[in-house]
Task: inverse folding
């Protein structure tokens, strides 16, 4: 059991160090990290497309529809590999559009609140305008929004790695104290 705990501590320490290194890379080089991650995923998609094509030719007796699906998948993977920034930017653009739509809905509700003589309707207008502006920032500067998010994820990974190593150190120290206490009790 003690060896299993030692192995677990080693695994957690290695995992913690990996988190710290990955976090530092994401924090220091967010654009390059996103490009690398996108290209790795693109490579996996390309390989999946090629494997589908091969399996449809050799295993299923030349299935044209399966070959077409594999070809489309490989082409999408190639497109992602060639333009990784465009793919990464899709997420904040979609979120930005959602924020703008919700902001416009809030603006409509703010007008209704004014017509209904609600208290402090100007507050609702401010909230709506902030939503619209945040959405516009996401759409207009999508890659930088992803870069900021990547840096935040890097900080989170660094924190995770440090706390993992700290926890392993504390548990290791406590278990040594327990081992020493048990040894002293056995001597008595």
Result:
């Amino acid at each position: 059991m003690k060896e299993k705990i030692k192995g677990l501590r080693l695994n957690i320490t290695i995992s913690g160090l990996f988190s710290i290194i990955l976090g530092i890379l994401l924090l220091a080089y967010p654009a390059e990290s996103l490009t690398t991650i996108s290209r790795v995923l693109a490579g996996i998609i390309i390989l999946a497309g090629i494997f589908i094509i091969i399996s449809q030719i050799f295993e299923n007796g030349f299935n044209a529809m399966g070959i077409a699906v594999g070809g489309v998948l490989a082409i999408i993977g190639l497109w992602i590999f060639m333009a990784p920034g465009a793919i990464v930017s899709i997420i904040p653009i979609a979120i930005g559009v959602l924020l703008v739509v919700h902001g416009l809905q809030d603006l409509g509700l703010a007008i209704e609140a004014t017509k209904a003589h609600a208290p402090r309707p100007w507050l609702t207008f401010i909230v709506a305008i902030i939503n619209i502006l945040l959405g516009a920032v996401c759409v207009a500067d999508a890659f930088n929004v992803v870069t900021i998010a990547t840096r935040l994820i890097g900080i989170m990974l660094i924190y995770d790695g440090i706390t993992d190593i700290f926890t392993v150190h504390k548990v290791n120290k406590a278990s040594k104290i327990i081992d020493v206490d048990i040894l002293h009790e056995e001597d008595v």
